[in-house]
Amino acid sequence: MEARHLRYALALAEHEHFGRAAGALGIAQPPLSKQIADLEREVGAPLFDRTRQGVFPTAAGEAFLARARRALDEIAAAVLDAGRAARGETGRLRLGFIASALLDPLPGVLRRFGRERPDVRLELQEMATSRSTAALLAGELDVAITLGPPRGAGAEHLVSVPIGHDHLVAVMSTAHPNAGRPSVSVAQLRRQRLIVSAGEDEPAVGASLRALLGKDSPALGGATVARDVHTIVGLAASGVGVGLGPSRMLAAPRPGTWFCEVTPRTPLPDLVLSFAAKDHSPVLSAFLDTIRRNCPDVGAALDHRLRLTEPE
């Protein structure tokens, strides 16, 4: 029994005449009569009474047609669901990210993706770079946003592309003597009470700070340690000291604070988007399309990295 048999039976019940039903279906009458007869033999009961007044469903036919309508509705729904899944409009995306990615560019990306793909279930987890890399390699995440590229065994099986470049900036209270100035020098920072991050990604940022201020800098040794960039800004606003962090902090201004550049300019590790090279799921492709449109400068690098992973 095929779906067309169900459609033929429903058309015959609707038009109550073999000729009219065949015309509506776009087939000749003899093939329709034969198909209905074959269907009745397969069901094991007459589905229609053939009378001079027309063709009408029997009791068995009414019961069959009720199920046939539901079956065709389910088939249509299955085709629709398959198409939506193939276009990445349904499914699940598991994303691991470091906290500072929520300053930029993740908010804009998530808003756009959620607006355009409302039926995709987003599973978001804040986690350090080392943890998200391990989760990505273990198949527990679909995408990871890390500080610097993933490293370690298996990282060569990932596609990674920078989605944000950062450099060191300082933040202080508007009551601080340096507030209002465009920049602060390394020599000035060495004389300040500093506030630095102690998050799980601190080693990457800490290396940059030690290179800038000196490996055994007293300013770093006596620094106030904050959990993340939001805490750095909050403590700076409270007058605790001068906070040092990524330029993404500029996306989270707070009353009573002043941001300025650090000279010389000190690059920090890139914000990097990574996913498994073998993952060709439609939902991931849709997410990458959102990245391309929301972060235009990323698109060319992403497409280049994807081309490198294509089999020859």
UniProtKB/TrEMBL annotation:
One GO cellular component term: protein-DNA complex
UniProtKB keywords: DNA-binding, Transcription, Transcription regulation
Gene3D superfamilies named among the record's database cross-references: Periplasmic binding protein-like II, Winged helix-like DNA-binding domain superfamily/Winged helix DNA-binding domain
Protein name: LysR family transcriptional regulator
GO molecular function, one term: DNA-binding transcription factor activity
Alphabetized PANTHER family for the sequence: SMALL NEUTRAL PROTEASE REGULATORY PROTEIN, TRANSCRIPTIONAL DUAL REGULATOR HCAR-RELATED
The UniProt record lists the keyword Cell cycle: no
Keyword Coiled coil: no
InterPro entries: LysR_HTH_N (IPR000847), LysR_subst-bd (IPR005119), WH-like_DNA-bd_sf (IPR036388), WH_DNA-bd_sf (IPR036390)
Family: Belongs to the LysR transcriptional regulatory family.
Domain HTH lysR-type: 1-58
Record-linked PROSITE patterns: HTH_LYSR (PS50931)
